[in-house]
Specification:
346 residues; Methylamine Dehydrogenase, Chain H; Neuraminidase; 2 domains; 1% helix; 38% strand; Pyrrolo-quinoline quinone repeat domain-containing protein; Arylsulfate_ST; WD40/YVTN_repeat-like_dom_sf; PQQ_rpt_dom
């Protein structure tokens, strides 16, 4: 299936782009984790299994936003601070975060911000501690933003007006951990990863929780930290699949779980299930057109891939991005952008 991105077209300053992705709409989950640091202008080749093609990847690393070409070279780079979500708009612009609470649209051809919404100052939040860890362009042209600290989802138009909001249920309130990634479902409901609560919750437009799943601890005790030594259920992302199940990146649970509507685990991988790979903070999830999963492996340390493409039926790793030296240990957001024509790339 070829994906057409949502209708949010971005600012009037457009860049020519033919944006068709070999992935389903629900596949997009550039996922967030702790503050990103990771990029350096290196051109060493991307490690990969010889049975599969390389990918073009948009990600954030230790010096900013970067496009890694299939041959491992850098197609585009922009110095940028830490981010917690990442989208490519139909006009070829990039939607991401600036600072703790501002959502911005970047024109990559000029490397300039052409639109912004500051959740720390707008929408009645002045004086409050607000962090933003998720946002998404909507089919009607508006933008969803998850406001941690305010414990709400807002939908804003391009003039910055809030046109709808949904109060979130948070058991362990904290502006840094109320939410991680949030995605709109085809029904119009929202699927929210509540990091500190360890739960994925689906909200309808009235704010009712219509489905909830607590990520299990699998009989283990929690352990502090961000790397492979840590453990918990601080999930980063949840995607609703075409079969109605939910795919969850468990964060410091070092796992990916496919959960049925009645909360049974239908498929799973854990920290040491993949030969030669140790999962750390599992972040980015993307489902490709071929059904494979792309998994972010943040805080895994040297010698470990930062991205992994997995064939779910066999659990075989068919591609991996090993660029610790270039991009650092904190690459939590990425997006496969194969077969995308963008005039701002070299």
């Amino acid at each position: 299936m070829i994906l057409n991105l949502p209708v949010w077209t971005g600012s009037s300053q457009t860049t020519t782009a033919a944006l068709q992705f070999p992935t389903t709409r629900r596949a997009f989950l550039p996922v967030i984790a702790a503050t990103l640091i990771g990029f350096a202008m290196q051109t060493s080749p991307v490690s990969a299994d010889e049975t599969t093609a390389q990918h073009r990847v948009l990600l954030h690393g230790k010096k900013g936003l970067v496009v890694v070409e299939p041959d491992g070279s850098i197609g585009w780079q922009m110095d940028w601070g830490g981010i917690h979500d990442l989208h490519l708009l139909p006009n070829g612009h990039i939607l991401t975060r600036q600072g703790p609470a501002t959502v911005v649209e970047i024109d990559p051809s000029t490397k300039s911000v052409v639109w912004s919404y500051d959740c720390g100052k707008q929408g009645g939040n002045a004086g409050k501690r607000i962090e933003v860890h998720a946002f998404e362009p909507l089919p009607n042209g508006n933008l969803m933003i998850a406001e941690s600290g305010a414990q709400r989802l807002i939908e804003v138009d391009r003039d910055g007006n809030i046109v709808h909001q949904i109060a979130l249920q948070v058991e362990k309130p904290n502006a840094h951990t109320d939410t991680r990634l949030v995605r709109r479902l085809d029904s119009g409901n929202y699927l929210v990863a509540h990091e500190a609560d360890g739960k994925a919750r689906e909200y309808n437009r009235d704010g009712d929780v219509v489905w909830e799943y607590e990520v299990p601890m699998f009989g283990k005790q929690s352990a502090r930290g961000h790397g492979p030594e840590a453990f918990g259920n601080r999930l980063l992302a949840a995607l609703r699949m075409d079969n109605g199940n939910t795919l969850i990146a468990s964060g410091n649970g070092h796992s990916v779980l496919e959960v049925t509507p009645d909360k049974k685990i239908a498929w799973e991988i854990h920290q040491n299930d993949l030969p030669g790979i140790r999962l750390a903070w599992v972040t980015t999830l993307q489902i490709l057109e071929n059904g494979n999963y792309v998994i972010g492996n943040c805080h895994a340390g040297p010698g470990q891939p930062i991205l992994i493409e997995l064939e779910p039926s066999t659990k075989k790793v068919v591609w991996r991005l090993d660029r610790f030296k270039d991009f650092g240990n904190d690459v939590s957001n990425s997006l496969i952008i194969d077969d995308v024509e963008l005039d701002w790339l070299n």
